[in-house]
Structures are given as C-alpha cells and as structure tokens.
Design a protein that fits this description.
Elements: E1 5-10, E2 13-18, E3 21-25, H1 40-62, E4 71-78, E5 86-94, H2 101-112, H3 115-121
Antiparallel strand pairs: 1-2, 2-3, 4-5
Protein name: OsmC family protein
Organism: Actinomadura chibensis
InterPro entries: KH_dom-like_a/b, OsmC/Ohr_fam, OsmC/Ohrsf
C-alpha cells in the first residue's frame, strides 16, 4: 500500500508529505485559516483535473496531435445539505487544436477513464483507525 503522511503545522495548516514532495494545505482567511495553500477539497478536485489533463495529453500524443497548450478547467459545487461533500464537478477540456469527431470521442473516453475519475465512480473502501498509543520520547 502506498503511504502519505499529514503533519500539523499551525492553526488549520497542514503539510502533506508525498514521497519527496510537500503540499501545504490550509483554509482561506474567511474560514479562519491563513490561506497558506489550497483546502483539502480543492486538492481533491485538483487531483481530478490533473488526472484528466494527464490522460488527455497522453491521448493527444498517442494520436500524434499537438498537446502543448492543452488546458483543463474544473468547477465544483458543494452540497447545500449534510453531509458536507462535493456534489458536482464540471471538467472542461480545451485542446490546442480543433479535433475531428473521432478524436473528440477518443479524448473524452480517455479522460473519463482516468484513475481519479474511476475512483470516484467506484469509490474505494475507506477504513479509519485510531492509533491511540502515545510513544515516550
């Protein structure tokens, strides 16, 4: 199993350690944070956008189509009710060239087959475990 670690920094700010990378997350000023990074929800949506971009670029390259300048924009809506969750995500692709009907369908199929999209459609089981043991220093 791959593993990441999240370390509290201060207030609502955390550092997410991913291999040799550090991603800073926080809450916006309006929510009591220091806005030192995106929120966890923004990272969730950003991971879908980045995955879509990756699959779109790979599709374009495989088809020998220009990939430089590919843009992916995503918008998301939070649910008005409980539980708190993202209720809608819209992914918009802007390839650098006009695509044929065949490549339009192929690009959409590639993007909807991205790993993050598949993980949302068929969600993983999430086990939450409390490790209540305190180790002496």
């Amino acid at each position: 199993m791959s593993e990441m670690r999240v370390v509290h920094r201060e207030g609502d700010a955390f550092a997410v350690l991913v291999r040799d990378h550090v991603i800073h997350v926080d809450q916006p000023y309006a929510a009591g944070g220091m806005d030192a990074g995106p929120t966890p929800v923004e990272l969730f949506v950003a991971s879908l956008a980045a995955c879509a971009a990756h699959y779109a670029r790979r599709y374009l390259v495989r088809r020998h189509l220009p990939a430089d300048g590919l843009e992916v924009t995503v918008g998301f809506t939070m649910s008005a009710g409980a539980p708190a969750r993202v209720s809608r995500v819209e992914v918009r692709l802007r390839p650098p060239v006009r695509l044929s009907d065949e490549d339009t369908g192929g690009l959409l199929a590639a993007v909807t087959g991205c790993t993050v999209h598949n993980s949302i459609l068929d969600p993983p089981r999430v086990d939450v475990r409390l490790e209540n043991e305190v180790t002496a220093a």
